[in-house]
């Protein structure tokens, strides 16, 4: 595994195509549990998969292929914190083509304002925690194992398990929300192809103000409960900016009409 240490870039033997990510933050313990299934294209002869990970605890990993029933388990799993990489070594050469890399992991909602971190707000004089992401430029690796380089673009399917009374936000509109007792599972539409640093997740108790552009794109600004007045200027600027960009670039807003 020493060949991967101290390298500026990840090896190109595996290319990510799609991420299916599920996160369950615990806002009391300030931890989170996670699972990611990554569709990868193995394009070189290798028995290693190397991707980015930092401040995570890896519980299990495996690679499977739809063309066969074979599931490959790594013989060695090493998280190299100095280089923020996760190295999976397999006993045999990985078959070329599309496979699925499954990883189960845990993490900490840190107080460093990067990765998947905790922030606070007050409600009726009581301090509450919320979970927030900040991945730019290279901190998605602190939330889920990934190819955390801007050129390694893919699509992202996000699912969140959160307390039922809280608001859960991500890049795309909600397609399904199921409540099961004190928890709810929120699933979002799959994103367009994009870099890892653009993935976003926010979990907390929020109000919002809402408006629409002249061509019907819904725009919301979320804020602390009881402070919607403080979001009105940001909402006004966001609506006008979308309309300006549409005219300047001669390109309509490309995502579903919800942000």
UniProtKB/TrEMBL annotation:
Domain Aminopeptidase N-like N-terminal positions: 16-198
Domain of life: Eukaryota
GO cellular component, one term: extracellular space
Signal peptide per UniProt: none
GO terms under biological process: peptide catabolic process; proteolysis
Claim: Hydrolase is one of the keywords in the record: yes
CDD domains assigned to the protein according to its UniProt record, in alphabetical order: M1_APN-Q_like
A Gene Ontology molecular function term of the record: peptide binding
Entry keywords, A to Z: Hydrolase, Metalloprotease, Protease
Database matches in InterPro entries: Aminopeptidase_N-like_N (IPR045357), Aminopeptidase_N-like_N_sf (IPR042097), M1_APN-typ (IPR034016), Peptidase_M1 (IPR001930), Peptidase_M1_aminopeptidases (IPR050344)
Name of this chain's protein: PROTEASE M1 ZINC METALLOPROTEASE
Organism of origin: Salix purpurea
């Amino acid at each position: 595994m020493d060949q991967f240490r101290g390298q500026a870039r990840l090896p190109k033997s595996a290319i990510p195509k799609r991420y299916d990510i599920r996160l369950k933050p615990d806002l009391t313990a300030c931890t989170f549990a996670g699972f990611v299934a990554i569709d990868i294209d193995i394009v070189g002869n290798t028995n290693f998969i190397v991707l980015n990970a930092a401040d995570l605890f890896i519980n299990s990993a495996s690679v499977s292929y739809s063309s066969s029933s074979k599931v490959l388990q790594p013989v060695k799993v090493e998280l190299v914190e100095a280089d923020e990489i996760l190295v999976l070594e397999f006993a045999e050469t990985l078959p070329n083509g599309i496979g699925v890399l499954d990883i189960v992991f845990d993490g900490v909602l840190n107080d460093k304002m990067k990765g998947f971190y905790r922030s606070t707000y007050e409600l009726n004089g009581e301090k509450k925690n919320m979970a927030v992401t900040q991945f730019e430029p290279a901190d998605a690796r602190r939330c889920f194992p990934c190819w955390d380089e801007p050129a390694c673009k893919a699509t992202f399917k996000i699912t969140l398990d959160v307390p039922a009374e809280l608001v859960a936000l991500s890049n795309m509109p909600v397609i399904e929300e199921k409540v099961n007792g004190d928890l709810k599972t929120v699933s979002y539409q799959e994103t367009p192809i994009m870099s890892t640093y653009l993935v976003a997740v926010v979990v907390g108790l929020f109000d919002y103000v809402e408006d629409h552009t002249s061509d019907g794109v819904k725009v919301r600004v979320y804020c602390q409960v009881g402070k919607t007045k403080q979001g009105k200027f940001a909402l006004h600027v966001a609506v006008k900016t979308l309309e300006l960009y549409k005219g300047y670039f001669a390109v309509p807003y490309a995502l579903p009409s919800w942000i």
